[in-house]
Amino acid sequence: MVEIATQVTASSDGDAILEEFLSYLKPSTASVYRITFRKHFLPYLKTVEFHGEKIPNLQVMLDLISADQAKTVREKQNVGRAIFKGFSEYLIAEGMAPKSVVNRVGAVQSLCKFKELAVSTKWIQLPEPIAQTKSFAWTIQWYEIHNAYLKHADYRALSACTFQSGSGISDVLARPYGLIQKQYEAQLENISKQIAYLAASKTYALSPEFPVKSIVFRAVRIKTGVEHRTCYGPESLVLIKRHFDEIYGENGVPKLEEPIFKMQRRPIDELFAVRAKTLIGEWPFRNPMSIHGFRKFFRKRMVKECHCPSEYAEYFMAHQLKGDMRKTYSEMEDHEWLQIYREYGEPKLLPDGTLQTGLAFRILPYEVAQREFKKLGSAPALST
Fold first, then answer.
1. Chain centroid to CA 384: how far?
2. Domains in the chain and their CATH numbers?
3. pTM for this entry
4. pLDDT tens-digit readout, 110-163
């Protein structure tokens, strides 16, 4: 039981303040935070005592923290820090994983920030998150074979767009057709010729006779609201057309406001888990070959193997940038970013027909994938 040497002087209903706070959050975040407070923090708060008196609700807790912060350094008792530390210990005693503990303490910290109360977690020794499952050490050959095992055009196209743009799966699923429509349809003739060429020649590499160029577009990362630009490469466009042809018929396209991929996240994760078990067997906890791992693979190939300045890769991925760098990058023209992508991205994100296995960028028949997988042998070691 946590005891803090101060006195409860007010009592009011804290539900209103919680709902006010949640109303300012995205629905998905609000839902998670509501569970955190109802299921974890409020039960914990009932164990906190101030001179033998329980804290009745969130409003009283915030008043206590505010009153304590208004005191002189000599008088302060760091009420907020003590509550956070106690909550962390309470969650650990309940058997919660370190990362979950950090996230739930962070939810309460956000409520304090919402009410202009700064409570640092620096001094309360939150548990260090431990990766439950190490990520898969992707290579191009494993990437090609994995995506060939997906079989269907929609999953192959989704996978290509995720890898070639460095975007999160939620962002790729949310993007409307209007985002790529002009650049895609301007190349539709050559894209169609590439598909015909691939079918007739039984090759697995795109023909230079019918060039398909990478496209660039502005987007907003859903998780952070950060605006950025990124690209889809030639193979993404070829696979998008195959995907569209299956749904809308030859050369058919969705409406401008409709998503490029009318797919749900859960079936995607489930299919990737099935394919991973085929390729690397069983694993504990999370799927190491999840589609989200392509973001890490994108950055690795751009920065480590193509020697792309890390700030460029971070901008493509909508990560945080230092100082005024984002403003500077946002003012650059689309063609400048397309040139950067072609210089640093295409050498490793696009195939030339001779990449390691000599296979194409997921334009690979399922049967060929099975044969090549047997040649490849054991999976590479998992890495952190």
1. 17
2. 15-114 (no CATH), 140-376 (1.10.443.10)
3. 0.69
4. 999 999 999 999 998 899 877 667 778 887 777 777 877 787 889 989 998 998
Helix (H) or strand (E) holding 299: helix 293-299
H helix intervals, 78-131:
79-93, 98-114
194 HSE (CA, 13 A, CB side): 25
Tokens 């005592």, residue located:
49
Please state, as a whole number, how many other Cβ atoms lie within 10 Å of the Cβ of residue 96. 17
Higher pLDDT, 12 or 79: 79
What's CA 294's distance to the chain center, in Å? 10
- Residue-level pLDDT at 208: 85
Give 197's pLDDT tier (boundaries 50, 70, 90). Answer: confident
CB of 136 within 8 A of CB of 289?
yes
Cα dihedral 183/187/191/193 (nearest 10): 180
**Whole-angstrom distance, CA of residue 381 vs CA of residue 371:** 21
Convert the pLDDT of each residue in 289-348 to its tens digit: 888 888 888 988 888 888 899 999 999 999 988 888 989 999 999 999 999 998 887 767
Contacts of 229 (CB under 8 A, 6+ apart): 216, 217, 218, 219, 315, 316, 334, 337
Radius of gyration of the chain (CA): 26
Residues with Cβ within 8 Å of residue 158, at least 6 apart in sequence: 169, 172, 173, 261, 263, 268, 291
CA distance 257 to 84: 45
CA 317, CA 270: separation in Å to the nearest integer?
A: 25
In whole angstroms, what is the distance from residue 219 CA to residue 228 CA? Answer: 6
